[in-house]
Design brief:
- This protein is mainly alpha-helical and about 80 residues long.
- About 55% of the residues lie in helices and about 5% in strands.
- A two-stranded parallel sheet has the order 1-2.
């Protein structure tokens, strides 16, 4: 799932998983309603956990995603791999 708002990703993952048994992933836009960049990056990382829990094996970001957003996802992925 690419170039969607983060809020659409959980439902999209459920629908995609129901229709496809191969690898799936999420590359949404960062949140638009965060008060500042620090909060935006934190929300993005928290959402990454939900995407993994929803079946995404590949996570990242698309339009206007910064290196800070991707860096915030790294511990989420490592945490999941360790579990």
């Amino acid at each position: 799932l690419m170039c969607h708002d983060m809020e659409n990703i959980p439902l999209g993952l459920r629908n995609l998983r129901a229709a496809f048994d191969g690898p799936i992933g999420a590359y949404p836009h960062p949140p638009k309603n965060a008060p500042d960049m620090e909060a935006e990056v934190k929300l993005f990382a928290e959402a990454g956990r939900e995407w993994i829990d929803g079946g995404a094996q590949i996570i990242g970001g698309c339009c206007v995603t910064t290196p800070d957003h991707i860096a915030a996802l790294a511990p989420v992925v490592k945490e999941h791999q360790a579990a």
